[in-house]
Amino acid sequence: xxxxxxxxxxxxTPAIRERVITKLGKVKRHFDNVIDVNVILSVDKLxxxxxxxxxxxxxxxxxxxxxxxxxxxIDNLVDKLDRQIIKHKEKVHARRxxxxxxxxxxx
Length: 107
Prior knowledge:
By secondary structure, the chain is α+β, with helices and mostly antiparallel strands. The protein has helices at residues 14-30, 70-97, and strands spanning 2-8, 34-44, 47-56, 59-67. It is elongated and about 60 Å long. 17% of the residues are buried.
């Protein structure tokens, strides 16, 4: 998994970088086929914002979160991303196990 971490009006400190990497490990536990992740952290007056683009095979997932505290925004971002990854994984799994051409209604 390639990670691209950038800041807008914000310097990325080693503590922030470590927090993002450890939190994104939670997503990697649920879904291994992550190609790359682009995370943008920004500050606009009193609002700390975190955005992520996650590229997986066949789909791109975009999530954003904002809060007064940057660490809370990162936590909320990863929670939203994790929910969307699980939802995508369940859809792919359900499609794989459908049997096309089999009719359940037999009279």
